[in-house]
Prior knowledge:
The chain has helices spanning about 5-15, 25-35, 40-50, 50-60, 60-70, 75-105, 110-135, 150-160, 170-180, 185-195, 195-210, 215-240, 245-265.
Amino acid sequence: MDITTALILGVVQGVxxxxxxxxxxxxxxxxxxxxxxxxxxxxxxxxxxxxxxVLAALIYFWRVYLKIxxxxxxxxxxxxxxxxxxxxxxxxxxxxxxxxxxxxxxxLVGASAGWLMVALGAAVILNAVLLQRAKTSAxxxxxxNDMKIKDMALVGVAQALSxxxxxSRSGITTxxxxxxxxxxxxxxxxxxxxxxxxxLGATFLSYLSEGGAVATSTxxxxxxxxxxxxxxxxxxxxxxxxxxxxxxxxxxxxxLAVAGGLLRVLAG
Length: 268
């Protein structure tokens, strides 16, 4: 991998990780096209580059992670965040790890996984229509303090499905939270805060599978670029989510999810 390719991969990872478009899939496409990498290596490289997203999330949301640490000492809000991380991580690990190995072995689920993103995107667009028709409703106004154990469990299941090529982790978790009635900025934040746990697991699995084939000096350059682009993307998305246009945010996220899913379907 040359430095130009590393820069391109870093930009792709830094933007697509936070949108309802699978960053793994986009990195796979670029890796196979520019590097001629076999599907298995391209898939693992996409997972390895999630380390950029991990570091960006830790930097941007450091206050949330500090609250989580305070939760160990009894802070009420911190304990809720800690419970959220524990529940989603346990469910994601139980379902996502075996799914990763099955996916890596067969790599036959891309198109069907793409249809999953299309269906979720369509559901979020429908949710936008319903919110528009029920302007006085409190739907779509839940905050993190309203999060129940069942909500956490559903987010964990959704995150586990992101092991499938074609399924965006941030896309499937954000759309799940929107469909559960959470405010757009709260949905984005709750989704993005999960990145370090899920991303570290993905990076570790890819390193175990491919070792030095993914952990190269140019891949590390791609990580640095990915961190910088990620920070800018997170800031822009949260600003958009806080714009008070709940219906518009739901519609845009749904449309991007549909587009990303169709892209994966068409790519086969």
